[in-house]
Amino acid sequence: MKFYLYDEKTKQYVKEQEGYLDPLETKAQGKNVYIVPPFSTTEKPNLTSLKDNEILVFKGGKWQIEQEFYVGKIVDCQGERASKYVTDNDLTFEKCDGGFKIVEKPAPKEKTLDELKEEKHAELKSIMQTRRNAIQVEFDGDTFDANESAQENMIVLLKAFDLGAPAVQIRSATEVTRVFDKDTCQRLGLVMLQAVQALYAEYWKLKNRLAACETVAEVEAIAWPEASK
Fold it and tell me: CA torsion angle for 69, 74, 80, 83 (degrees, to 10)?
């Protein structure tokens, strides 16, 4: 008779083992009685359908397929198992004679200066766009949005004066409705445009500094000034 052993803690399949007769019980009962190995079953596991990242565990009186993750040190490599194992702390093991060895992770490839510049440029561009979407200006004792949507609205309002409107209503960022004539609207529009131009000027200055960088330290030192937010 064959027995199929599993690990005491993980219940994972370990190996197949031939059973040994218990001579005293066999004689007493008049039939073959085998010595049952600890943590074993006579239920035969199906080892042919396992994928590389799957293992068999004995639970609820039957073999079940589970994903293969280990916790702690692995010392037993007997039986049919996959060749690689990954622990919950991201260590990889490979099967070897008598146990497992840790597979050294390859050192992360150092990025080139050009790659670091590309990453920094993407960072600067993303921050610039975020600030562009949230830009505001102070005008006539109030605060007004100056993002793309606000500037598009200003263009529409200025066209209203060309159609003969004496004044237009503008909602400030403080949620106050203001009534402006054409001259006031034009002055507000100019303030909004200047704020956006100043933001882009800062971005271009940082971009030019980045292009001139010759070391990693110089690239890492580039950042938006807090006052530009």
Answer: 70
Rounded to whole angstroms, the maximal C-alpha distance in the chain is 117
Q: How far apart are CA 8 and CA 40, in angstroms?
A: 9
CA dihedral sign of residues 50, 54, 57, 62 = negative
What's the sign of the alpha-carbon dihedral 47, 49, 51, 54? negative
Q: What is the 3-state secondary structure (H, E, C) of 121-164?
A: HHHHHHHHHHHHHHCEEEECCEEEECCHHHHHHHHHHHHHHHCC
Question: What's the CA gap between 5 and 225, in Å, rounded?
Answer: 65
Q: For position 98, what pLDDT does the model report?
A: 46
Q: For residues 54 and 33, what is the distance between their CA atoms, to the nearest angstrom?
A: 34
Beta strands in the chain (DSSP E): 2-6, 13-18, 20-21, 34-35, 40-41, 54-59, 62-67, 69-70, 84-87, 92-96, 99-103, 136-139, 142-145, 168-171, 177-180
Angle at 59 between CA 54 and CA 61, to 5 degrees: 130
Rounded to the nearest 5°, which phi and psi values hold at 16?
-100, 140
Contact status, residue 69 vs residue 91, Cβ threshold 8 Å: no
- pLDDT mean values, one per 10 residues, the chain (229 residues): 85 86 85 88 85 79 73 41 44 49 61 92 93 94 94 92 93 94 95 94 95 94 74
pTM for this predicted structure: 0.53
* Distance from C-alpha of 79 to C-alpha of 61, rounded to nearest angstrom: 20
List 158's β-bridge partners, or say none.
none
| SS3 at position 187 | helix
